[in-house]
Design goal:
This protein has 6 helices and 19 strands. The strands form 4 sheets. Strands 12-18-17-16-15-14-13 form a 7-stranded antiparallel beta sheet, with helices on one face. Strands 2-11-10-5-4-3 form a 6-stranded antiparallel beta sheet, with no helix packed on it. Strands 6-7-8-9 form a 4-stranded antiparallel beta sheet, with no helix packed on it. The longest helix has 19 residues. Bound molecules: FE2/S2 (inorganic) cluster and fe (ii) ion.
Amino acid sequence: MVPRAMVGVMTNPGVFADLAALRGCWHPAGFSADLDAGPMAAELLGEPLVLWRGRDGAVRVLSDVCVHRGTALSLGWVSGDEIVCAYHGWRYGGDGRCSAIPQLSDPSQVPAKARVPAFRAQERYGVVWVALAEPRWPLPEVPELEDSGWVAVSAGPYVWGCDAARQVENFTDLGHFPWVHPGLLGDPARPVVPRHDVRTEGHVLRYEIVRPEAPNSDDFPVFGNEQAGPPERRSRYELHLPYTIALRLGWGGERGMVYLFASQPVAAGRCAGYVVIGRNYNLDQDDQLIRDFEDTIFGQDQVVVESQRPDRVPFDLAAELHLRFDAVAVAYRKAMRAHGLAASSYPERMTSS
Ligand code: FES
Ligand SMILES: [Fe+2]
């Protein structure tokens, strides 16, 4: 008789994101502002993490599992440069080593095994980025977000029940705007996707489109176009594998807007999208207006994307049906496989079941 676990695998083989390979990439794990309140729990690629700021202000990241009894270290508190476990008060430094065990008559007599895994982190663009293994590529450069002539506002995180690749593909999907966001990002009377070519350069995909868009709506006057009629918007996309996008919008003048979007692969079927939006116009506009706009857009997308089956992007090009206007998804799926970030789960699971 075929074991039940194996039946599931045999009827649902496929090429999906490879969580082990994704450890060697930078991923968002929180907004910088979230760390101000003390230690924070996060999950990345199924790994529970605790993040806190050390005395020097730099972010520390450890496994969120105390080596003593498995308590979440994020329940504890920061003392000096260390985090203190809430259960028995063991103290850990940013390198993951336990430095004191209060139950011992000499608390500093700590056995060498008393340590938890430590990971690398950096803060940039108001986001905390974590890599669980040596990162293969640096973060994308978005100088606008570090330019004093621009203002930035964050939105999200948007926590969805799908894999990070589904969320990224949705952000790059050009055909859905008039259908899912009529009046906000697209015009149902203009459903044709403009021609665009995707260039894959190493781990970065680049493409751009010029399209008539929905005019600024009265509810959300967030874009930089000034004319009343259908404006022309130039959108330049950079998709940095695996899950980060820099999108630059222009209307032919000085006004510019940049979107940094990064999806956190929380676990195989769960993700969280972080958005940082920069602009060099309407500098005094209330941040909440842009946040409300993004909440609306991401809310419209979430319903559709969470209904997709499978809940993870199938990276085998024979899966799903691709037409020419899906060129970005095709290039993305090819590049993720070419870089070893998506792999067949079939043989591995066959041998382990
Ligand atoms: S479980 Fe953390 S100190 Fe005991
Ligand atoms: Fe959308």
